[in-house]
Batch of 3 targets.
Target 1
Amino acid sequence: MVFHDPRSPRERIAALGPRALAHLVGSLEPRTVAALDSHWEYLARTGQRGPESDWEIWLILAGRGFGKTRAGAEWVLNAAQSVPGARIALLGATVADARAVMVEGESGVLARASESAGVTFEPSLRRLRWENSSTAWLFSAAEPEALRGPQFHFAWGDEAARWPNAAATLASLRLALRLGSRPQLVLTTTPRPLAWLKTLTEAPGVVVTRGTTKDNSANLSATFLRSMARDYGGTQLGRQELGGEIIDDVEGALWTRAMLEACRVRILPPLRRTIVAVDPPASSGARADACGIVVVALGHDGCGYVLDDASIHGATPERWARAVVAAAERHAADRVVAEVNNGGEMVTSVLRTVSTTLPIKAVHAAAGKVARAEPIASLYSTGRVHHVGAFPALEDEMCGLLIGGDYTGPGRSPDRADALVWGLHELMLGPAGAAPLIRNL
């Protein structure tokens, strides 16, 4: 059996006894000893070094503080210096994140570059340039269309599990990696229970490195490590954020995966009402949140049924309004329920420009998204709501809503889940839905 020590050479040397350590240091020239602390091969743990096998994507799934950013930055520096004229994409959740963490952060490219590397950052152009003509550009995962034109040899994406519309963004990035004989992509992220991420871990050409916060204990505060172990050790949150595990359920979530699996049905009963619920984005364009568009119905059995998730991302008001009308027509909806907190009368006006006969009810949020969701989650727990099929993007958001008010993602806002809540509230908790059912015996 071959034993692979995950520690860095520095950590292994530091663990030597006093006599062995003194003998080793005495055998080296002073300038060699002084240079070691700036040499990545000396500092890097096994999990922070690029895979030795041939690979297309190196996916580092690890807990916070593992050293993912440092590994990504060092890999970029090596790629830029090894391939003169290399074109590199640096992709963060936003451009601000890419700059603050990947470039200017304490573990970012600029901080880790030696003076001899000759790298210059041009913030106004979102660009890093090397003296050997290699260039790296900063991109936002919220603007995947920006990746359509350029092409690259290498790319590094950070905190990919937190990207909005991550699967589509990753596809755009991979399509842009088409230069050279061996294009490569490094993804560094704390994992989340996302379908696309699970699929990626099993894909050919993908090498997965897993790690925990504790792996980097030599470089982290002992007080931090103790408090994290005390407060989160063994919990689902701790296993995900510190242990780097993909956990299907987040502790404290209003909905669990098992709850949603149990509510699936294939056959619809006769329906009393059908509603299209809309949670409009506060802005338009590529940077906008999704427009949540969810179709729900109330059956004659008194149960709610989720029929469709027609949500749309990065759309103009006219485009999402057309999607709402199309969903209403497709499902013969009785009414459209639209939240108007962000857009006011503009929301109903935009919908009216597409369909003058559309029955619309405007609703105003008096409480936060999670507070509105809690009574709806209770309906699920008692078996009164069913999903007709599977709605992965919607269900991921539902499982990210936590008791107490937090939202853990995916994306910045649970727009799909909020639309669902508005629709089911109208059907089942509003005046009509709250009325007692009369049955003939």
Target 2
Amino acid sequence: MERTLGAAVVGTGFGVLTHVRALQAAGVQVRALVGRDPDKAAKRAALFDIEFATTDRQAALSRDDVDIVSVTTPPHTHAEIVLDAVAAGKHVLCEKPFARDLGQAREMLAAAQDAGVVHLLGTEFRFGTGQALLARTVRSGQIGEPRFALFVLHLPTLCDPSAELPAWWDDAAQGGGWLGAHGTHVIDQMRTMFGEFTRVSASLATLSPRKMTSDDTYTVQFETESGGSGLLHSSAAMPGQFLATIKVSGTKGAAWLQGEDVWLDTGSGAAQVPPPADLPLVAPQPPPTELLHTAYDMWHSMGTDLVPYTRLYGVMRDRILGREVADDPQAGTFEDGVANQAIVDAIRASSASGAWQDIA
């Protein structure tokens, strides 16, 4: 009989809100929780029946019953933790934004490849019903050759200067900001539909009245190898109503998201695309209310990322155990982490210079 895989989750914030629950739902036993605050780590470990809570990362990495390490800490800490984990022979899932910069991203990829471990990136929404179906619809050719993509999202969260976020989130030097926190998901989504970016023209802004050096608003024009282009715009500090639009236009029509539903119009009127049988829409499962204290926590309060993350961890489990996995959706790997980071770095460079930037 196959053994039950074990995991260590490094990080007691989003790591507990989503990763612990998703690992357990995927049949992986979480055997260690690593945090900076021993009391907080112990209490949150007890809430989910995790046997070992510690502030000593090496104590968790040295456990023989730990196969997977989930890195859910602030982005500027990812490289050190990932390098330690792969050196210990552990399979690793690393949250996004993947790294502080492209150099770190490449170092992490090389180390994981040299160690021969399974390495996945926390782009869980590839396994979300709506995003996966939209990507399939675009790639199927139903709208012809994709020519333009539009993504817009407005949230009012940071209009309140007292909205509580982790200290690193406000600090650009620590990888904080909305581009890294949210924009990396959108970049990954566009790459999976359109292919690789070739260049970007971007502007990063801080609209919130709070004291922060990181961005809360991004506007990005991009071009791709296939000749497509697009506009990505989002703000976490935009007053007024919630606004969300994702639409892709091609030579034969357009497809767009309405919630988790995908709609298509190829000239005969709008029609809903049937939901995929392999990725059914499942109701969100919110985390326990005692874990929800800050504005950062509330971004995850609906539990919309639990099912996609459970599916992602299912792929990781199956790869480690040598089982076959489906080709679509493909789980993001550290290679995608490098590709996404190259785009993020180019966006930051473009915003600083005011000029188009080629992707490294």
Target 3
Amino acid sequence: MSFPVTNDPDSDTLHSVIEHVFMPPKLPQKDPGERVEQQTNVALCNSLIGAARDFLRALPSSEYPLWKHMLKTMELIHRAAKTPFEEGDLQQALSSMGLGGMSR
């Protein structure tokens, strides 16, 4: 399953993404809250998946299968960032990541 990377982040979320990616780590002065943290994580996933898809276009076709597995893993992380897994879903997701898993 492929996840669309469409939600443009608001300015606060974009600022948080830039801090995560480009700025040296700093301790937060206050807890940003669960909602803000989730938005930042989803925005980071969107950016990562978008960059990975762009990179895929530049790869030789012999490298596609390996990169497709990485993309599927990134999409799984994106899904978990949007809606945390329940225990059964998590077990299924981790099982599919084993040797030979995630080949769909």
